[in-house]
Design goal:
CATH superfamily: Glucose-6-phosphate isomerase like protein, domain 1
CATH class: Alpha Beta
Low-confidence stretches: none
Mean pLDDT: 96
Helix content: 55-70%
CATH topology: Rossmann fold
CATH architecture: 3-Layer(aba) Sandwich
Bound molecules: D-altro-hept-2-ulose 7-phosphate, zinc ion
Radius of gyration: 17 Å
Distance between the termini: 58 Å
Number of helices: 8
Length: about 200
Amino acid sequence: MKEDLTEVVARDLSDAASALEALRNRPEMLAAIASAGRLLAESMDKGGKVMSCGNGGSLCDAMHFAEEMTGRYRNDRRPYAAVSMGDASHMSCVGNDYGYEQVFARYVEGLGRPGDVLLAISTSGTSRNILLAAQAARAKGMKVIGLTGRENSPLAQASDIAIVTPAGKYADRVQELHIKVIHILIEITERLRDPQNYPDAE
Ligand SMILES: O=C(CO)[C@@H](O)[C@H](O)[C@H](O)[C@H](O)COP(=O)(O)O
Ligand SMILES: [Zn+2]
């Protein structure tokens, strides 16, 4: 008997909706996301920048985040200072010569300045290159926003602000919540820095 694929689709959408609702019902996480957005806006107001990193799908999320900061999100506005650490030539040089663990830490050591922010994304919260980037950022006097799917993971513990989305069995569900969080972070940054784009706000 053939599987009803529309059932597969419906089940997955329901599961995703439940995960979003679970995040919505965690007041401490809503507060953490709001604080992280405020940190980003305040850093940029003072001339700081945000650097973002992740592996695999989370690197795509880190790039998505940075391009909507430098480029645009919903409406026209000035560009914001953001850079994702996904440059292939840097990754291949540092991966080859210093080891993959160092690819993001070395980027942070080269470009990070006190007052900048690192957005470190890891669904497991255990990827060594992300943890070393967080350490390098703190050593530079940067603040670390950790976006992960595991409470008490090494990344959550190494972050100034830990945003922990509900953990599903697989990384994909965590990543779906992460992209939601990323869009909210950008919206909060815009609301604080360019409120004219949000005429509905008080
Ligand atoms: O996108 C996915 C899974 O949805 C994968 O590419 C995933 O990002 C990779 O396995 C990563 O290496 C996982 O690393 P992390 O999120 O645990 O730090
Ligand atoms: Zn987007």
